[in-house]
Amino acid sequence: MNNNIIEESHEVFEQLENSIANEERLVLRLQSFCEEVLNFEDDCTEVEDREADILEKASKIANKLLKNSLNESDYELISHKIYPVESKVQFKISKDDDEQAFILKVENDGFELEQV
CA–CA separation, 43 vs 96, rounded Å? Predict the structure, then answer.
């Protein structure tokens, strides 16, 4: 692999990590929605699609978090998928022909970002 590509990839990772850290409020909201999905119990007294509503809200928060985090970069969000049981979001970003995939795991005290 070319050193320029490795350096650019590392630079994108660091920029993305810093941008996500600046969106702490959204990271914490996303984490709380993931917890809500885990703690959801269908007691037949709530709205029928309550779990689906929680997942939809979590997905919207993840989308906003990722778009805000990419706002300062030349990269665009291609797709994201939320895994609430694992409190993580897998997402792909792209710039020209450069496509990169990441996993963002949200926790009570912050987050972990991993490039896949």
Answer: 49
Distance CA 28, CA 50 (A): 20
Cβ partners under 8 Å of residue 16, min gap 6: 69, 70, 73, 93, 102, 113
Place of tokens 């939320």: 82
- Listed residue (17, 9, 20, 14) closest to 100, CA to CA: 9
Tell me how many degrees the CA angle 38-25-73 measures, rounded to the nearest 5.
Answer: 110
Burial code (b: 16+ CB inside 10 Å, e: under 16) for 18-40 equals ebbeebeebbbbbbebbbbbeee
Task: Give the tens place of pLDDT for each residue, 45-80.
Answer: 555 577 788 888 999 999 999 999 999 888 999 999
What are the angstrom distances between the C-alpha of 15 and each of 19, 32, 72? 6, 25, 9
pLDDT for residue 49: 72
